[in-house]
Amino acid sequence: MRTSLLIAATALLSLVGSTDRVTASVTVVGGGHDGVYLLENDDTPCAITSEPSPRPKHQFDVMIGAETHGRDPKKLTLLMLMIPDADLKEDNHSFFSSITFGDIGSGNRYSVETRPDSIVTGSGTVSVRRSGHDATVGFDVTSPSGVEFKGTIQCVDVARY
Asked: CA angle 48-148-57, nearest 5°?
């Protein structure tokens, strides 16, 4: 466990000064994919979208990954996270999160859905901390099959729509 924490801390420290717009350090426990993974992307931003009145709020979206046809089934290739109310200051229990190993269309996918008006599958918390045009997102979730994935996403120059 200490080794995993050390690797995760080292990965996070390497994010500082990166030219990537989005970087994520993800620790996975279970499902045959135990390990610490680093995803980076320089052309896909994190995004915050506004919802109109009567109760304006902001949704946060990020997708980190690339085309993966024929990719290694043990490699983390896609991370998606959607938070419908990113304005909460405390931990948020309403979100959708998914990670995929190998080919995006046919690889192993672990998803957690806790948004309103959806069938709840899995559990966990997420948080968004904004600083100017950047954001740091934390997540700690468990899929219905018991696979845990947690980590940090660093977004530089968040797109606003």
From this structure: 20
Residue with tokens 């994935």: 149
Q: Quick one: pLDDT at residue 154? A: 95
Residues 6+ away with beta carbon under 8 Å from 28: 34, 35, 36, 37, 76, 99, 147, 148, 149
pTM of the model: 0.81
Domains in the chain: how many in total? 1
- Domain region containing 80: 2-160
pLDDT tens digits, one per residue of 35-45:
999 999 887 67
Rounded to an integer, the average pLDDT of 108-113 is 96
Instruction: Please give the Cα distance from 154 to 161 (Å, whole number).
Output: 19
Q: What percent of the chain shows pLDDT beyond 70?
A: 81
Which DSSP category does 93 fall into? Answer: -
Q: Which residues lie closer than 8 Å to 77 by C-beta, 6 or more apart?
A: 65, 66, 68, 71, 100, 101, 102, 103, 104, 107
